[in-house]
Amino acid sequence: MEYSPIIHSLHVVPSSHVKNKLFVFCIMLSLWVYMIYCCVGYCSTVPNLTYGSVNRHENQAEVDNQGSSLGASRDLLNNENELDSRGDEWDEIRGEAKALDDNALSGSLNESESKKLPQAIIIGVKKGGTRALLEFLRLHPDIRAVGAEPHFFDRNYDKGLEWYRELMPKSSEGQLTMEKTPSYYVTKEVPARIYAMSKDTKLIVVVRDPVTRAISDYTQTRSKKPDIPSFESLTLKNTSAGLIDTTWSAVQIGMYAKHLERWLQYFPMEQLLFVSGERLITDPAGEMARVQDFLGLRRVVTEKHFHFNPAKGFPCLKRPEGNSRPHCLGKTKGRTHPNIDPEVVQRLRDFYKPFNFKFYQMTGHDFGWD
After folding, report:
1. For this structure, is 358 an active site residue?
2. pLDDT score, position 242
3. Is 128 annotated as a binding residue?
4. Which of 127, 180, 202, 318 is catalytic?
5. According to the annotation, is 319 in a ligand binding site?
C-alpha cells in the first residue's frame, strides 16, 4: 500500500492541535482555581458586614478635666451615638470583637447559657461617659453586655421584646445581662416602656457638667458637619437678649432634673444610680466600686485594672495578671473643644444653676458643677 503524505498529515496535525488545547485549558483551570483560593482567603480577613457590625454606632467614652478652661478643654469622654457618626466605625467593630472575645474567655460557654432581657441598663447621658463605663463593666466576669446600642425603647420598640432579646449575648445563671443607649434618659416614652418590660430593672445614668457636655456634643457634630452654625448662635435664641434656646437638643439634655422627674414616675430612686463622668476619669476604681455594689456584684474591677495614660488624659484598661499593653479607648478621644465666647459660657452656666441645684437635691449628691 502506497504511503500518502496527505493522509499522514490528517492524522498528525489534529493530534498536535488537541494537545495544545489541553495544555491551554490546564493553565486556565489552574489560574481559575488559584483565583478562587485567593478570594476565599481574602474574604476570611474582611469584617462581617452584617446588621450586628455595620450598624454599630457605638458611643465611645468621654473624658474631660473639670478644672481646665472650657475653651481649651479636651473632649475625652466622646460618645459616638449619632446615626451619622461613622468616623472610626471599623475601629469600633474591632474593639467590639475584642471585648466579646475577652468576655468569652472570662466564662466558658455551655449549654445552660441563654439570651435574656437585660436586668440593668445604662440609660444616659450622651457625651457623659457611657462608653467608658460599659467597657469598665465588661471586665467583670459576671456581666454580659451588648456593645452596640440597641435603641430598642426609643427607635425599635415596634419590633417587640423577642427581637430585643435576640440582640443580647448569651449568659449563664448568676450573670447579669446589660445594654446601654444614652438617648433613653431624655426620651419621654422610654420610662414606661422599660417598666412594662420589668419594673425591677436597674438603671444607671452617667452625668457630666452640662456646660462641658453641651460643648462636647457640639464638637462631635461639628467634626461631622463642619458647616454648622457657631455654638454661640445655636445656644442663644436672641444674641442681644441673651436667652438660651432650650429647643436645641445639646441644651435640653443637660437639664437633668427635668428628665429625672419623668423617670421617678415609674421607678423609685433606689433603682437609679448616678455616676459622675468626671470621677470615672479621676477615680475610676472608686466609681466602679459604687457601680458594682449597686448591681449586687463582687468588687472584681479595682484599681489594678486601670492605667492612667497622660498622653490621652484618661485611664486605659489592663488585665492585672497579664503583661499585655493597656487597652485604651478609641483614637477619636481627644477632640479639642472650640473656643467659646466666655460670656455665652457664663450665660449657659447661669441657666443650668437651678437645674443643677434641683438635681443635687433629688439625687442627694453634689456633683460640684457650680
Report:
1. no
2. 80
3. yes
4. 127
5. no
